[in-house]
Amino acid sequence: MSGYAEAFFDWLACAVGGIEEPATRAMVAATGGDRSPRGRAAVLGTAGHVLDFDDTYLPGIAHLSGAIAPAALALGAARDKTVGDVLDAYTLGWEAMAALSRASYPNLYKRGFHATAACGPVGAAVACAALIGLEERTRKAAIALALLRASGMQAGFGYDAKAIGVGAAAAAGVEATLMAEAGARADLSRASEGFEEVTGGHYRSVGSRPAIERNWIKAYPCCLQTHGAIEAALQAREAGVTDPRTVLIRVHPVSRRAARYDDVQDGLQAKFSLAYLTAYTLAHGAPNVRSFEAADPALRKFARERIRLVTDSQMRESETALILNREWVGWISAAVGSPENPMDAPTLQAKAVGLAGRKIGGILNDRNRPAAKLLRALGLDG
User: Fold this and answer.
1) How far apart, in whole angstroms, are the C-alpha atoms of residue 110 and residue 88?
2) How far is CA 8 from CA 90, 192, 230, 309, in A?
3) What is the pLDDT of residues 104-119, one digit of tens each?
4) What residue ranges define each of the domains in the chain, with the CATH number in brackets?
5) What is the pTM of this model?
């Protein structure tokens, strides 16, 4: 599969795996069973992100598929488009959102915005506009309307609000496209100025080099900025150091900000805790989806009493150093799934099967398959 198809396939598996999660059920209730493209995009966007297992573009610190794939798939199913049509449109939206999130980093992040939710409407609108063939003036209006819908904050991390914000971004992109198609107008230049004024971000066109080359396919269902700590703890387990008296975790400030919880109240917050996930991995090995059904009191105690975190701005944003008992040192520069250490095809297939069962295999092979049939085959058409 191409990088885009691989990321879309990965997102599909995450959406199937997350369709019954509480945040997704809440979105279903909120939309009242709305089966319109907007309603479906909201639900699919929530489902695909709720496990925090979907792909991540680190230069923009954004889950690009999270908002674009559900919008393109929902609108494609409604307009009798094929899987190939959806993938082609998704590719354009993916690169557009990559350019926006990359140009907007770090200002967007420093102001407390969740880049996936803030940039997602634009990526979704670009994909949807391409999918239904909007002419240039109308396409720009759709992008402008999407820029004006930018929202979503990091304050939602560790709560259902994070995934719901991504679902809302996907829906906003669909709405912007359909409103533009129906005649709504907005000025892209003025919307770009407003986006910069409010968020500190910058609207940019797609670059010459494909951004997909810098995409991560996540190996663990938790904040990407914890993956280095997880793998450093795995190194410690392999070395037989599983119950250290002291643990020092050294990371880039971005990792500390993203994984902000030192003590966690539940499984959702555990996904955003360097300390808890290090303690978990030392005790049990790498976390999986079931690892976050609850927070273990003993691991919380370990994290509080034995683990200390420090930041180092000279480190790479995904780099982690782990020092146990002031002696043993583990170091991860690029975790599994990163561009430098990509996930191989069998591992991706195993991840997908674990999330969605055997029905996910080969689901994108037939580009002429109607998008609506793909939704039905995966049980995502409700």
Assistant:
1) 33
2) 8, 28, 25, 35
3) 999 999 999 999 999 9
4) 3-219+340-377 (1.10.4100.10), 224-332 (3.30.1330.120)
5) 0.97
